[in-house]
């Protein structure tokens, strides 16, 4: 959706999952340190199944929202009097949610069945992030400079998260990689909100000059501040759980 709500919805999902991961992986890491046998508590397996189900539900909500808003495509990809594509931006967002939904389903099977290899869940989540980045890379062509730049910065978090998750496939239960993933998810969450505020001011305030290079410079600096905030949230959660 080309409006503030369309960016706030995925922003909320990414922020909530990033916050949850920073708590879950910190808890699991410290519980294993306290466990004499070095094994995690079995309750975390159940939490992973629930997390997969929640991610699947969030993806379905996102797909339905993109398709069935009043000005959405309503599952029509091609049509109209001129036989044109119908709301391709909504379709791109729907495709993004689809792959996160697939990732959630894989999570459910990975942690509820011994027949699914461990690591497949992280691989599919990495694929979902790669698909998101791939879609957004071609999402911003032929747009004003600020619009292109603010979306391009999002690709840093997207592809960075995908690369980190790919490493997690081979380096299981690495707390550094897990917290790195959490921080990038938080960054994506807050940055989606930032994109919404810049391009679609929710309270009808003056819009940003999308051709002003000074705005491009400021938004780059603002991206760094967002990541500093994400690191702070992860550090606070880790420290509180450690205590």
UniProtKB/TrEMBL annotation:
It comes from the Eukaryota. It is a multi-pass membrane protein. It is found in: Membrane. Keywords: Membrane, Transmembrane, Transmembrane helix. The chain crosses the membrane at residues 6-23, 123-140, 152-171, 183-203, 215-240. Belongs to the TMEM45 family. This is Transmembrane protein 45B. It comes from Gekko japonicus (Schlegel's Japanese gecko).
